[in-house]
Structure formats: C-alpha cells, structure tokens
Write a structure and sequence with these properties.
The protein is an alpha/beta fold and 233 residues long. The protein contains six helices and twelve strands. The chain has helices at 3-11, 84-91, 125-132, 149-158, 176-187, 199-211; strands at residues 13-24, 27-33, 47-54, 57-61, 63-67, 72-78, 97-104, 116-120, 140-146, 164-168, 192-198, 219-225. Strands 4-3-7-1-2-6-5 form a seven-stranded antiparallel beta sheet. Helix 5 packs across helix 6 (199-211). Belongs to the SIP oxidoreductase family.
Length: 233
C-alpha cells in the first residue's frame, strides 16, 4: 500500500491554482481555490501546508486572506534557495492542482488590541501582512532583514503595507544591532513581539530582549528556516 497517497486522501484537500502574480523576481502572489476552503474558518496567523508531490514533503505558507464564501485564499510565496518549495513556486502555473492541509494554528498571534511588532525576513511578509491588518493603523511595526531590498519593497507597496522597515541583511549579522534597538524601544511600551524567519537571527534577538527585561510572555518566536537545514515548519 502507498501510505503517502493514503495520507494525502485522508487529510489533504485538493485545490486549484486560480491565479499567479509575480511581484518581484522571487515573490509570487498565488490564489488557490477549493470547495473545502468553504468548510473552514481561518484566523490571521494560521498556516496551510502544501504537499510537494508527497504527504511527507510539504512546505508551509501563511495565507494573507481567506474568502470562505468563495472558497478562495491567497498566499505570498518566496522562492528561497533551491529546495522543493522554491522549485514548486517557480514552476507553478495557473490551472495547476495541489493538495493543501489546514488551516491550522502556527503561533500565538498578539491580541488585535495590543501594540505589537514583528521581526522577520522575506519569508515573513505574508504573516506580517495578515497580522498587521488586524491592528489599528500605526499599532503594528514590521522590521525585516532582507537580501533583496528592491524586491521586498515592491511587495510592501503591492500589499499596501505601512510601518515596514527594510534592512539589508549582512553576512556577519551586524545589521541586527539596529533592529534590536528598535525592538527594545517598542517593547518598553509593553508591546508584544513576534520574531520569525531565520533561526540564527531570532536567537540573539530573543536573548537580547530577555536580557533587557522583556518577559517571555510578550515574545513569540517561529523559525521558518535555518542555515544548513531544510523544511522547517
């Protein structure tokens, strides 16, 4: 018995690629449709997982919106490296089919009424957009370390995001000092902080925030990738 196919039939929902918009070289805004999407409520910050040909090979994406009435969602996909996810993103065409698991919880999102800030990188833009829309204007800062400043700026403009600071990522990590200072400044106002993206960047920032007196209860972390590893959830 092919257990991979059995699991896919049991838990994954067939979906169709309804549209693709290439915003920048490695960023694609992908619309997915499925009758199964009408059966599930979604909250900003929840994730879906898309199978890459097998139930055991999948990649995680954060929807930027969810239209339950139309059975439609959109994800911002970033082709990061040369793994299965990036290959799928680059080869995808309108009309293609895929299998989707979710939506389900990914992290504890800060209360919509709270002051908050998110740190991340290109892989965090979808989450940042979804969470920022829950908050009052000016109450949710986004600080991103990015390798492609121009591409990330085009995404921010296309999604109509505000309060986003893009910082060019340096191999030695020296760019994190300015981000750390800004996060500490925001945290002094009792803000909730969400640290996402690269594991090797999250760790020193979290340590600095904790050393500065920010309680763990106001720091949420979610690594999307790590140097030398593939397929983090």
């Amino acid at each position: 018995m092919d257990w991979s196919r059995t699991l896919m039939r049991a838990f994954l929902k067939p979906a169709r690629v309804a549209g693709i918009e290439t915003i920048a070289a490695n960023f694609r805004l992908i619309a997915l449709e499925s009758p199964a999407f009408r059966e599930h409520a979604w909250a900003p910050g929840q994730k879906i997982q898309i199978a890459m040909g097998s139930a055991f090979t999948n990649r995680t994406y954060t929807p930027i919106e969810w239209d339950r009435a139309e059975g439609r969602t959109r994800v911002l996909a970033y082709a990061h490296g040369e793994g299965p996810g990036s290959a799928w993103i680059r080869a995808l065409q309108t009309g293609d089919s895929c299998d989707v698991f979710g939506p389900r919880a990914s992290l504890d999102a800060p209360p919509a009424s709270a002051r908050a800030a998110l740190f991340g990188d290109e892989t965090s833009l979808g989450l940042a957009h979804a969470l920022q829309r829950r908050h009052a204007r000016g109450a949710f800062d986004v600080l991103l370390e990015v390798r492609d400043l121009a591409g990330a700026a085009r995404v921010v403009d296309r999604l109509g995001m505000e309060g986003v600071t893009l910082t060019a990522a340096q191999a030695d990590g020296t760019h994190l000092a300015a981000i750390e200072a800004r996060l500490c400044e925001v945290a002094r106002g009792h803000a909730h902080l969400v640290l996402t993206g690269k594991a090797q960047s999250i760790k020193p920032l979290r340590q600095a925030l904790r050393a500065g007196g920010v309680p763990s209860s106001r720091i949420e972390t979610k690594a999307y990738w790590a140097v030398g590893k593939r397929g983090l959830d």
